[in-house]
Amino acid sequence: MNNMFSAGELAKLQHISKQTLLYYDKIGLFKPCYIDPTNDYRYYSAEQLDYLDTILIMKKIGFSLRDIQEKLQHYTTENSILSFEQQLVVIQQKIKDLSLIQSRLERRCLQVRQACELRETEPVLTTIDKVYLLYHSVDAPYSSKDISVATKECYAQALNEDIPIFFECGVSVPLERVQSGRCIEAGTAFLTTEDFPSVSNILCLPQGLTASIYHFGPYASISESYRKLLSYCSEQNLRICSDSYEFCINDYITSKYEDEFITKIMFYVEPM
What's the predicted TM-score (pTM) here? Predict the structure, then answer.
């Protein structure tokens, strides 16, 4: 047909699928100007090309199909400028959010890579900077299931309240439980985060002297690493002055194999 494009021709011209055109027709966003009654083939006029370009450009900018449909009903220069300015605000926020995610993902990759390359299994004495933890209590009997539930509560709160997190989880085990051999009975689960004064369940771990060790392998075998760390503190005449903090360096987020898991165990200490 002269000056007309079939759905297949238009799809090829615009680098979209025929199914996209069918969907746009179905929702009333972009309808063919003619449907052949003998075979139901859809045809589009040359004049419709600019209209389709507008839809695809607005979609690329980030408008939803519902937004596009609504805006095209009141398509004036003034309304377009207002819509574009509003979308700029949305884009700027997305850039900020993605930049934050990028920096934290880079940190996570570096952290895992360094731990894997170091493969250090002996305790060390280090001074750490402040760390902020978004935490939830683990319910008795403090099983792996209870720890998972508390961790999920942390993730849910972070997502619902837009609390920035570093994609790193962990648990804290009360010192008396560690000393009595109950090393896997965590008292709290946490996610590393930032200072967020409006959130009551964020704990600040202060800058200070710590004794720590990396545990490689399944979490069920972590008691051996605790034994090493406790012995080290005793031999070095260090008084343990905090509960333990376990940071999951390599866990189920990065590997399904427990043999590849890496957990950093840490106590605050002071010389006796």
Answer: 0.71
What are the residues whose beta carbons fall under 8 Å from the beta carbon of 94, sequence distance 6 or more? 62
Tokens read off for 191: 């996610």
pLDDT tens per residue, range 15-71: 999 999 999 999 999 999 999 889 989 999 988 999 999 999 999 999 999 999 998
CB 189 within 8 A of CB 147: yes
Q: Are 72 and 54 in contact (CB under 8 A)?
A: yes
Q: What percent of the chain is modeled with pLDDT above 70?
A: 99
Rounded Cα distance between 166 and 191, Å, is 7
pLDDT at 153: 97
Locate 108 and state its tokens: 């996570």
What is the β-pairing status of strands 4-6 and 165-173?
unpaired
By 3-state DSSP, what share of the chain in percent is helix, strand and coil, each rounded to 5?
Answer: 45, 25, 30
185/187 Cα distance (integer angstroms): 7
The token duo for 195 is: 């200072």
Contact 133, 208 (CB under 8 A): no
Alpha-carbon span 197 to 110, nearest angstrom: 28
